[in-house]
Amino acid sequence: MSFFQKFILALCFAIAFFVPVWFLGLGIVVGILYAVFSLFSGDYFLFFIPLVSALGAVGFWGICQLLAKTLDSAINIASPKRLRIYLCLGVVSLSIAATIAALKLGVYGLFCLSPFLVTLFLVNYHRAYLTSK
């Protein structure tokens, strides 16, 4: 991959994951407070927000490792089995968040699909590494 292609990939990654990472931070900081408050009031749905945020953090760690491997092929990253688990947890978290966003925002919720496209590209690019043992 040339320097220009790596730059475009890093830029697309930054644009695609800007909003999910922002909501991830809000979900961890504010979600924990709401979850504790909701436990005392008897509403258990808000306890779901920190769980989805934790899954998203693990998935974001996995996709960042794939990006690092793309930008520098000599870097050591997690084992393929562990990386597949990270990515699956991230996709589950992003699917839940995208579904909630689509229900609340309507057509604007489709912007939540951009991280899926970047993830799909990186997984396809590293499919030989991810399918190895």
From TrEMBL:
The chain crosses the membrane at residues 7-38, 44-63, 83-101, 107-125. The keyword Membrane applies. Keywords: Membrane, Transmembrane, Transmembrane helix. It comes from the Bacteria. This is Uncharacterized protein. It comes from Colwellia asteriadis.
